[in-house]
Amino acid sequence: MMKRSEDVEGRARELVQCLKKVKGEARVQTLKELHKIVAAHPSVEKPVIDSGVLGILSSLLGPFTSHAVGSEISLVVDMLNEGTTKTKRKCARLIEVLMGAESFRFEIVSSLSLLVGLLRMVKDKRDPDGVSAGLSLLKTICSHDQIRSSIVSIRAVAQLVERLPDLSPNSLESALQILDDLAAIPDGRSALKDCPQTIPNTVRPLMKVSEACTRHALSILWAVCKLAPEEFVSLAVEAGLATRLLLVIQSDCPPELKKQASDLLKLCSLNYTATLFISKCKLTRTMQ
């Protein structure tokens, strides 16, 4: 049994080395065989990674030597959509690692199939680790301005907003950063405005999780309230925003964060008399 395991690992290492030398159809066949071995023998995954396969695959994702090789790489996206929860997590992490390579082109991760697959992972409440992996990759993808409209087009904004209340702190931070990035484009702001839960679900994390969460939440709330103040400012105040903004201003947060909170507080006060607005800011309502 041990001998067979060593043989499989040895063959996998040989194939990784072959990828450096072969081209065209031979490279396609090598990729296919390596994929079959790793799929059939999970224990081989770590030795294969240790042998430098990620760097080699990353170089293939630059200028493709053939359409066939590109198709083989796209198998990762297929596995992310159709594999087990464990497989999906590994595929998401693999793609994120590959995105760190200098030769990586953003077009590779702009496919709607990948984006939809990641949203499915984020929606799966049964797999918190998968949610975390999906959000982490989606956050990295969202850092590319060119892909943000595609993310908005698959209704990602509403789905992410709906998940905010029950995410872990790390996942919440990732989700808020994604929404903050999407709020930077007109389609993203419109999608946030059209989602009924945007205001309450974004007010809730202010000063309750982390400084990063507070920063992203403030930015999102500013974008929405500035877009349609008559419609959303009173809704935000009723959700407890004014009270939380006062907490930001009185905290040891960085000056730029306090300035943003102060500007938003001024915007919130415009539709109220001084007496009524002060009553809305009572600190007894702070952390309900």
TrEMBL record:
<dbReference type="GO" id="GO:0016567">
    <property type="term" value="P:protein ubiquitination"/>
</dbReference>
<keyword id="KW-0808">Transferase</keyword>
<dbReference type="InterPro" id="IPR045185">
    <property type="entry name" value="PUB22/23/24-like"/>
</dbReference>
<comment type="pathway">
    <text>Protein modification; protein ubiquitination.</text>
</comment>
<dbReference type="InterPro" id="IPR016024">
    <property type="entry name" value="ARM-type_fold"/>
</dbReference>
<feature type="domain" description="U-box">
    <location>
        <begin position="71"/>
        <end position="287"/>
    </location>
</feature>
<protein>
    <recommendedName>
        <fullName>U-box domain-containing protein</fullName>
        <ecNumber>2.3.2.27</ecNumber>
    </recommendedName>
</protein>
<dbReference type="InterPro" id="IPR011989">
    <property type="entry name" value="ARM-like"/>
</dbReference>
<dbReference type="Pfam" id="PF25598">
    <property type="entry name" value="ARM_PUB"/>
</dbReference>
<dbReference type="InterPro" id="IPR058678">
    <property type="entry name" value="ARM_PUB"/>
</dbReference>
<comment type="function">
    <text>Functions as an E3 ubiquitin ligase.</text>
</comment>
<keyword id="KW-0833">Ubl conjugation pathway</keyword>
<dbReference type="GO" id="GO:0061630">
    <property type="term" value="F:ubiquitin protein ligase activity"/>
</dbReference>
